[in-house]
Amino acid sequence: MQRWIWVVGFAALVIVGSGLVWSALQSPAAQTYEASLVNSIDFELPEIGFSRVDGRRQWSFPQDYGPHADYQREQWQLTLQSDCPVRLDIIFDRITVIPEELAPQRPSEWALQRVITADLRLEDQEGDVVADTSLASRAAIGLAGADETHVWVENWSFDWEAGTLSVATNDITLALTLELEEPDGAGIEGGWYQYARQGTADGTLQNRTRDSIDCRVTLRHRFGTFERLQVTEQ
Known about the structure:
Layout: H1 2-25, E1 37-39, E2 42-43, E3 73-80, E4 87-96, E5 114-123, E6 129-138, E7 144-146, E8 150-153, E9 156-159, E10 164-168, E11 173-180, E12 186-189, E13 192-206, E14 210-224, E15 229-230
Antiparallel strand pairs: 1-2, 2-15, 3-4, 3-14, 4-5, 5-6, 7-8, 8-9, 9-10, 10-11, 11-13, 12-13, 13-14
């Protein structure tokens, strides 16, 4: 839940400004765009200027392994499959609060345009939660970002080119080497463009004990535009 406090705070700073930018681009007779902050867990972000999921996309790999900056939201989700001694699910989530073409010229390296969040949930074989934690940061001055090879938030990183996943918290250190197969289908699912890749994950998990990981893994990479983001309390 902590990551959404970051996202809401960041979004609140730019929603009014982006609405004014869009209004300035409209003709006097045109309907102006409005976006309102509903409450701390239920808000809207402007969708003007972003590409939409219309079914006309021509997929191209390996280029599509990387980020799609013209879409408002994007996720890379890695899930260890049932053959693993632990259940691990981690999602890197890129949210762009205002598109590049409407962004004001801000020379500061701290200027907010994108937010990267990462959620990790770890369960033991009995299904008991071992860890449920998250990070969030603006994509500025190297704190977080997504480029042609990897996505990261501080010291959490997924590199699809090198085939590595690394996470470090006060309680967990995870280091995995990934061998991912070619995409198993690509299309639209749940309003997102999405494809899946299967593969293997090999490495170590340091928690209360040091465990070896040698499991099957699934990567789901999705991107699209959302009109309304619903966030529920955990």
